[in-house]
Each structure stands twice: as structure tokens, then as C-alpha cells.
Amino acid sequence: MSDVSNTVSSDELPALYGACPWFGALDARHQDLVLATSRAEHVGNGAWIARRNAPSDYWLGVSRGLLKLAIYNESGRSCTFSGVPPGGWFGEGSVIKRELRKYDVVAIQPSLVMLVPAATFHALLAASLPFSHFVIGQLNNRMGEFIASIQNHRLLDADARVAQSLAQLFNPQLYPSTDLTLAISQEELGYLTGLSRQRVNQALQALADLGILALAYNQIKVLDLERLRQYGLDQI
Fold it and tell me: What does each C-alpha distance from 236 to 56, 203, 219 come to in angstroms?
């Protein structure tokens, strides 16, 4: 990572990686390989974790914080594909194909990021059946997430787009560690939806009035996850 960061000590890695379901499914020698070759880093808000068209040298995960996957053009305009909350791992497609990364990765909160080298990733993919199963599930669920994102952006009104962007952060397969109380600001949610902070505020107030959410300063508590997941889908 090119931005200033604070590397986690090797003594902390077993507990950090041990909290990941895919790591717990590995046999002891493969766990040792991950711990010997991987690392974790604290990054600040606004840090660039990876850049589009750079080599995909790492498979990336989030232990704490929030990242966004986006594309920025030369004029500074951006298109956000997804947010990645704690428990999420991403970038396996480009690592598998050994291609240049297709998007920028930026922290929109102070975050703790985990980095598994591409060589380690490929060694696990070739030798560990549990890891291969996990990656296949990741690819399948990620494809579904991106299809839903395009559908929501094109067909839903602003309130529903905000609801669905929040609901995506609770995908149990991709983001198993997301808490029902999200430490996320309206500005940060605007980055994920492509809407202004003011319009996000209006949508959140509407959802709160329906009893789906409870709002506090830089915090959103989901009161009814199933209603949040269904909100606005009748527009499709």
C-alpha cells in the first residue's frame, strides 16, 4: 500500500487471521503459510489501499473500518461499486487471473486491512479444498452483489438506493462480521450510493420514520433487517 500506514506486529496476526472463517478451515501447515507471508496494516481515513491498473499483488480483507471499491477518472469524478465492511474479503478475481486491478480501493474510515500475497493465495487455491470452496462462494456472491448494485442504481429511487446500499453491507456470506449498529456517517454512505449527503439524510429520515432504522451521530442502527432488505424492491 502506498499511503502511510502502521503495520501490525507478527505476534498479533494469529488472533487477527484466526477470526476469519476461511482461515479456521485450513489445516495447520496452510495456516502457518498464511501467517508467515501475510500482514495487516492500520490505515487512515482517505488512504489508498490499492490502485486501478496496478498489479493485483494481494488478496485483501477488512478487520475494522470501511473501504470502498471505486473508479476515479482524470477529472476526479468517481463511480463506486461496493463498500467492504469488517469481515469482507475481495479482489480474488484479479488475483486468480493475475491481471491488473480493475478498481481503486480507498478507506472511507480508519481501517485495519489484511493482505494475503498473491503467491500464498495461489498456493492455497491449488492445495486446500476448503479454501477453494470458500473462494468459489466469494466469486458467486460477489457477482450477485454487483448485478444487484447495477439494478438498484438504474431502477430504484433515492430512498430505495440508500436502503439497498445499507442492506448489502449485511450480506452474511460476504460480510459475516457486520454489526447491526453501523459506525457510518451520512457522507460515507453518500460515497457508497453516489448521492449527496443531504439526499442521503432525507432517505435515512424516511427509513427511520418507518421504524426500519434508528439514527445517531455518525451511527445507524438497523431495527428491522428484513424490511431493510425488501425496501424498494417492489419498484423492480
Answer: 35, 18, 29
